[in-house]
Amino acid sequence: MVNPIYIIAVLLGTAFLLGLFRKKGFEFGMALGMLAIAFAAVISVHWFIHLYSGTEGGLNIYTAGSKPPFSINLFMGVEESFFMSAINILGLLGFIYLFRAFREQGLKSSVLFLVLIMGMNVLIMSRDIFNLFVFLEIVSIALAGLIYLKRGKESAAAGFKYLIAIGVISAMLLIGISFFYLFAGTLNIDDYLQSNTLPVKGISVAIFLMLIAILLELKPFPANGWALDVYEAAHPGISAMISSGTATASIFLLYKLLPLSSLDWLPYLTVIGAVTFVGSNLLGIVQKNSNRLLGYSSIGQIGLMIAIIGLAPRLGDHFNFIFVSIFISHFLAKAGLFWISGIIMRSNIREWSVLRRNRLSLFMFGLFILMLIGFPPFPSFYGKWQLVMDLAQHKSFVWIAVILAGSFIEGIYLFRWFGYAMKEQDDEEKKIIFQWEKLIPPIVFSVLALGASYYTNNLSLLGPTLNLIPIYFILALFVLDFLPAFVKNSLVIAGMIIYSVLLYPSIADDTLRLIFGGIFMVGGVLTLFAGYSEKGKREGFFPFAVMMYAGLIGLIQAENLFQFFFSWEIMTLGSYILIIRGKKSMKHALNYMLFSLGGAYLIFIGFALSHIGQVTFDLQTLSSTILPGWTYTLIAIGFLTKTAAIGLHIWLPGAHAEAESDVSPMVSGILLKAGVFGLVLLFLLMGAEQAEQKNLLYILGWLGAITALGGNLMAVFQEDAKRLLAYSSVGNLGYILFALAFVTHVGWMTALTYSVNHFLFKTLLFLAIGGVVMRVKTHNMYEMGGLIKQMPLSFIAVLIGIITLAGIPPLAGYGGKWLFYNAVLSKGWYFQGMFIFFAGTIAFLYCFKLIYSVFLGQPKDKFRQVKEAPVWYLIPQIILIIGIMVFSARPDLLLKPVGTMLSQSNYFPTDPLNWENVTASTDLGYWSGYKIMLVIGVMFIILLSWLLLMSRKAQKIKQFNIVYAGERPFKPETTHFSHNMFSHFYKALGFLSIPVVSAFWNGLNSVTHSMAENTRKIYSGNGQTYIVHIMLYIIIIYMLMF
Amino acid sequence: MNIFPRIVFVLLGLFIVLNWGLIMAGIIRKIIARLGMRRGIKVFQPYINLIKNYSIRSQLSHGVMFYLGPVFRLSGGVGIFLFMPLIYGSDYWSNFSFTGDLILITYFMFFGMLGMALGAGEGGHPYSAIGISRGLAQFTAIEVPMTLAILSIAIQYQTLSISEIVAAQQGGIQNWTMVTNPLATIAAMLSFLGAMGHSPFNVVMAPQENPVGPPTEYHGTFLGVLQTNRAILHVIEAVLYMNLFFGGASNWGVLIIKTFLIYFWSVFVGMVFPRFRVDQSIPWFLKIPLVIGIAAIVVFII
Amino acid sequence: MSEKKQTEQDKFLAPENKKHTVIGPDGEEIQVDPLNDYFCTDLPKVEAPYKGVLEKFLNWARAESLWVLSYGTGCGSIELPPLFSPRFDAYRFGVAMRPTPRQSGVLIISGYLAVKTLKRVIRSYEQMQNPKYVIALGSCTINGGMYWDSYNTINRLDHYLPVDVYIAGCMPRPEAILAGFNKLKERIKSGNAEGANEYIEKLEWYKANQKKIIKDWNMPTYNW
Amino acid sequence: MKIFELENISMAAGFLLLMVGIWGIISQRNIIKMIISFSIVDTSIHLLLVSIGYIRNRTAPIIGEGVTKTDAATQITDPVPQALVLTAIVIGVGITALLLTYSLKLYRHNRSLEINHFNSLKW
Amino acid sequence: MNELIDHIKARFPIYDVIESQPGQIFVSLEASKLIPMITSLKTNHGFTVLVIFTAVDWIEDDKFQITYVLNNPKEKQDLGIRVFIHRDDATMESIHHLWKHAATFQRELKEMFGIDFPGSPGVDDPFLLEGWDNIPPMRRDFDTKKYSEETYFPRPGRETNDPATFMKQMLYPDD
Predict the structure, then answer these.
(1) What chains are in contact with E, requiring at least 3 Cβ pairs below 8 Å?
(2) Is residue D64 part of a domain?
């Protein structure tokens, strides 16, 4: 093994050597510098591998050949080698990244860079306090020099502020060190730790000063204005070094020095970290400048790490895993983001839409963003999972709440930013060059990120339990993205079919999973069929479609809470990207993501609560939770965000309406069932008694009823066809929630029947309307009209869809209604039931509006030549129609197994439905789908032939051959009665549709924003204010601690 | 019972109901005329109108759905008939009521409405669409008290089967729902006013401002089919209310008297009150009948 | 139609009824000729009556169920509402008012007809279904009455529509109109009231007469 | 223990200077004055360091005339703080130099040395 | 009333002042002075209502007479103003900017007399006559009887008989 001291030697030597070069030897000098850093990197990585795999405790290096106190000693342990590897690799890539900048500024700036790397290496290794101070100063000076790498007034001002702030901080550090020496008599950490000197107050103050200085180096909120200015003004390559490099070194420093103090610093660290995490992220949401935003985020992440250090005792053995996973995510993502920022050179986050010009960088951008927020499969996801679970074990609920709140706030601005990159208008005028040497570092970090994800999965404390096949499939699709769309589509369909076939045996016995698995997979394949009508490559669609379905099927397969949550997040992510692909869906996708994220975190907390006192994460743990009320409520609210219960529904209409034509059925017909599945699972596992005791089911019932009424009422007043369907989904999910809340046998049967029905008809309707929209290129129903002549098949599909939706016999929807009455009567929830029935009749209004405005009435001139919807839209529609017909004629095919399944579960031992051939009966009534179908069919045919006989030679006439009081119609546009069709209804009941909920969320939004806006005014931009912050911060912390 | 005799009885019943519907309409018109000091139409005038409409020689068609609209409408009317038990205690006259219960009938009423709405919609006439939108909007409110009344009697009798509800009311007028559950009866009869579409709830048709509403474009045979349906539907809806609230009928004579009285109730009210606009009738239904309906349920919960 | 005539007709066409081009959703140009695209341009066919008793029975039904289009053209329109008052009670003859021409069988021309009104009358008449009957009230429809030399009022209705019954008077009283209804019934029952078919048979002559005075003929030949 | 011993006085002076320096950094609007204040802070810390290492009646930790290697431990003051001071001075000089460089740059950019004029980066 | 006439006379060259009945005066005026005068009447003298506005065809004088009748609702006074224009150049200034409904009168006059009112909204649209292609029907050189006979298929009426001669012939065929 090479002695790590050589790292310092080589770096320092090279730095001196480079100082000798003149302009001519620039390339050579750069190569030399690169070699030196590469050398350092190789050695540190080598050491890490050696120490990690071996059993050695590490190596003490004594400089000057003698032991302390006569010399300074360095220590190379596993931790040190790990962080050094990180820093050196970062340094190497950062050095490459800055190639061009160095060329402009001359080789002397690269000298500073080398010194910086060297300084950080020593900071990690050194065990001597004063030595730490010295190298801290060296790092600071080098950085201060590098800040001015990007010339300009801003950089100069930022650099000055940085230096002044660092000066004050290091003064504190030095005072601390000197008094430490006064009382401890040594400057060596190990010596002090071994000496066991009795703590006196003086030494506590000294150590306080040292630690607070190092903490201030970590830029705690709010004493961090200087750092933000630096992030904003410095060259992004340097910002990356600060954010990922010096922060790493500093946090390790803190970690290293912490044992010195006899005071219990940890709670304070937790508070400081948490305040930083939440506060910094909060201010981030009003930030428009990308680098400053990254600065806020960076500070927030460091705050999280500080908090984790503070929480270490509660995490026990898991501390290392959690800390490293969070750290590595921040380290890779933040550096990568800063580097990307430097590539595109756009300071306003809205202008990041230029990323779309380079798919690779957009991909990397998304990867890093998701990694920061903690989405699976990235390490931070595992870290946060473990963190929250362990915190829950210690009942540290406040900290769970704070950490997740911070993460959520971070999600707000990061996803908004991501939305801008995906959807904001791109100003084509402004040219941009993607420089290759700047692309290398983020690429390497992306690869490292994926590798880290893989290893985290394997190293995860749960063991490699995840089913990675879908993930590999997704990755393969990313790689194969250059293929034409139909090839990829076929691949995906084939993959899903094969996977379903393979999956079938494992869920064949479980009717519940079979039903939902069927919805997810069959629905998935059917909706994907529609994708064949897309021309071109359809870049970036298929990986995320598969991601969504992988998540959904993962929910089915999940055996433990972790897998469930993992799949849940994967599904959310995939669907988010699918939604944001729509033309005007930036805002709606953000809404969707935020609600999903919030919901996911609630589920997360719920899982954590249920895990208290448990060893495994098995799904069954839900049944023996010690806090059933809370667990139930949190998880239920989480699922309710996905099912868009009223109050949490505002994301749905926009997201579903603005998505692409074939995505809308995916997210509406299929995705919403994930929430239903979750709720069913929750009830099954937790047991309804727990919830019933606290009237929670009662609340859920009312919620469902109001959701149904509100959703349907809103749907009536829509002019946008897809938005109408989306609101209708809100209403229909309200029925399902209501029925679920019964927790009776027939109630659940209703809910499951309704889920299947809703999948069938809503997918059908969205596909049909999607096909129409594709042809006519507008969503507004009043602009269409009379399309039945051009699109008869779509018309039939919509007709069957709305008959099913409205629950008119003989089609399948009636089964749901019938079960509903039985359920309501047997449960006794009459008034809620009344809401539901009122909602049901209101459904007619929008059903009629939908089919009339689009297909009937007056044809418009511009749609005279439109064709029938693409055949790929029609095929799945026909299959769905067949499905509806089968379930209409033979409802027992679905209901019998469901009844059996529910009877087998512990809650509903008796099946109230009796089957006599195909006739179902309960105590209250009876229903025979098959016979009804038969009677109505025969009758209809007879009557039709009667009319055919009577008026066999009817003259075909055209659209304006209508009676018009002796006049003629003016124009089709003015003759088609569609816009504001239900104005009278609005006069009567429109007051119920006032958007109270949107007003609430908007109010919350603006309160948050104005809070952030006002709070960030403390960063006045004046260096002296920052110093005041620092001083006040020290004083306040001191007051708190002593 | 074997299926073929049943079909024969069903057709026979349908024939009786159709005729009774036509005659009833004539009688009612006659009564109205006499109230207005007129001689009025002949009692058989509805028959003549029907024959005349079927005898119209030329027909126009706006399209397939226009053509199918009346078929849907008539299927709706005949369908309700098919699922309705007519005479208590008689297997012959219980039609196909074994296939479904009260809920089936309530929801099957929409079948005809929907078909009519679509057919009229394809006519392309804005007045049709206006009429439909008014009708549907008003119907949402009409259904609520009706639903409450149905729930109330379902709680009362613990069944949704119409035959069983009728059976429970046998043995004298004191056992009729009208007596045992007056609140539900009142709510339902108020909603019946709306369902029948007479004044004050006839803004759907509103001949003066909105020429006959949905069927503006229908004529000749199509109109004949619609008229046939109207005759059947009026009787059969009255039969439904009779079965639910007025003790059912044990023979045809009782059925005829009861349905006449029930139907006359809506006409009688229509004679007295002027027309509501939709935005007036919806709040009305959601105030008075709704409160009565809720009271009908509260009584049973307590 | 000759080119000159075409331009002549175009002069009177409302802007929205002229041929124009619209842009479809995919950017394609679509030629719209409203007169052909919005209106059915077919000509009607004679609907032959049945033979024998059946037709007699149907004619009886038609005669006993006269549905009148509520459409008034001149001063006579004020004479129609009293028909349905208790004093005259036209309902007892099976007469009823219908608001839509599709459902009505009788068109009452209740007074003088300006050229402008005639156009609307023709439309309404053609929108009615076969068989259909026309009753003309007052001397104005017979020979122009007091408008005999007016530049804008027709003199003889039977040149434009096949009239079944004329009721003379200026204006005829409701009693006279009731008598007219009974005359019409007789005529229908006797099987002579085939005005609708006559109109179709002599369509060219009627159309020529109509087009002679309706110079802005901006609608299809037959208004279905 | 006497209060007015040399080390106590110098330590008090050190703290006093520290306060003065920090006050200067916070209150002075002129960049050069801020840098001077910073230097005062620097110096005050050096003073503190030296006063910590001072042991009464001992000489400077330089082995040479009058102080031999063997009895150095009893004759000289604590050498470590002195070494620290030396290093700190060097670092202080470095930082001061860098600060002055920055002030020069700032002045070139804005023709001003008012710290208030350099707050374009904020919030 | 007379004060008013005096007042107007002082400012506008009116002539032929006729008091047709108490509170109603007709005056004549040159066409070019019309607009200033009725503007003044409307704004200063309370004649806020345009009662009617019509034309007479003086074919003998080769003139159209246009009569504007204004009303002062407060004083209950009517004032008719007559202006004369040549038939050959039948153009008059529009007053639709003073009273909106004047546009309808003007449209009617355009159709019936062929008097043009440039700038009046919709003045060329058909008012009563759709597709009229003859000279304006209210002009006296338009022979309405001839037109009617040519166009409207006059019914060949019965032979008309003077009752006196007819009865004489019937009763005393020999005389």
Answers:
(1) C
(2) no
What DSSP state is assigned to residue B100?
B
Cα gap E17→E13, rounded to integer Å: 11
Copy the structure tokens of residue B268: 């009688």
As a whole number of angstroms, the longest Cα–Cα distance in chain E is 79
Domain that holds residue C146: 52-213
> Would you state the CATH architecture of domain E2-171?
2-Layer Sandwich (3.30)
Cα–Cα dist A101/A680, whole Å: 58
CATH number at residue D94: 1.10.287.3510
Residues C83 and C168 placed together within one structural domain of the fold: yes
Q: Which of B101, B261, B252 minimizes the C-alpha distance to B165?
A: B101
In a domain, D46, yes or no: yes
Look at residue D108 and tell me if it is in a domain: yes
**What is the distance in angstroms between the Cα of D27 and the nearest Cα belonging to chain A?**
8
Nearest to C85 by CA among A417, B36, E99, B141: B36
Smallest Cα distance from A364 to chain B, Å: 52
- The rounded distance, in Å, linking the Cα atoms of A367 and A442 is 11
Residues of C with CB under 8 A from a CB of A: 16, 22-26, 28, 30, 32, 34, 37-40, 42, 44, 71, 100-102, 119-121, 123-124, 127, 219, 223-224
Kindly state whether residue C185 falls inside one of the protein's structural domains. yes
- Please tell me if residue C92 touches chain B, with a CB cutoff of 8 Å: yes
Domain count, chain D: 1
Q: Is D1 inside any structural domain?
A: no
ipTM over 0.90: no
Tell me the chain A residues in contact with residue C40 when contact means C-beta distances shorter than 8 Å.
955-958, 961
Best CA proximity match to A926, nearest among E29, C203, C23, B99 = B99
Give me the average pLDDT of each 10-residue run along chain A (1042 residues). 86 88 80 91 91 82 73 86 93 91 85 92 89 91 90 88 91 89 84 75 86 92 89 91 92 89 84 93 91 93 93 88 92 93 88 87 92 89 90 90 93 92 81 84 92 84 70 88 89 92 87 90 91 85 91 89 90 92 89 93 91 83 81 90 89 90 89 91 78 78 92 93 93 92 87 92 93 91 91 94 91 89 87 89 92 92 90 93 92 86 78 82 85 89 87 86 88 90 91 88 93 90 90 92 82
Q: What's the pLDDT score for residue C203?
A: 94
Candidates A776, A960, A972; nearest CB to C25: A776
Question: What gap in Å lies between CA A98 and CA A926, rounded to an integer?
Answer: 78
Q: Which two tokens stand for residue C25?
A: 């959703």
Burial class (CB in 10 A: 0-12, 13-18, 19+), A228: buried
Beta-carbon separation of A966 and C123 below 8 A: yes
Residue in E with minimal Cα distance to C159:
E153
CB C223 to CB A961 under 8 A? yes
- Average pLDDT over chain A, rounded to whole? 88
Q: Which of residues 109-138 of C touch B (CB under 8 A)?
A: 129-131
Please check whether residues C81 and C182 belong to one and the same domain: yes
Report yes or no: B160 and B117 within 8 Å, Cβ to Cβ. Answer: no
Residue A1020: list chain D partners with CB under 8 A: 119, 122
Q: Which residues of E touch C213 (CB under 8 A)?
A: 151-152
Our CA-based measurement puts residue A953 at a distance from the nearest CA of chain B, in whole angstroms, of 7
b/e A229-264 (16+ beta carbons within 10 angstroms → b): bbbbbbbbbbbbbbbbbbbbbbbbbbbbbbebbebe
d(CA A963, CA A976): 14
**C46 part of a folded domain:** no
Interchain contact, C115 vs E130, CB within 8 Å: yes
Q: Which residues of B touch C65 (CB under 8 A)?
A: 45, 48-49, 51-52
Within an 8 Å CB–CB cutoff, is residue C103 touching chain B?
A: yes
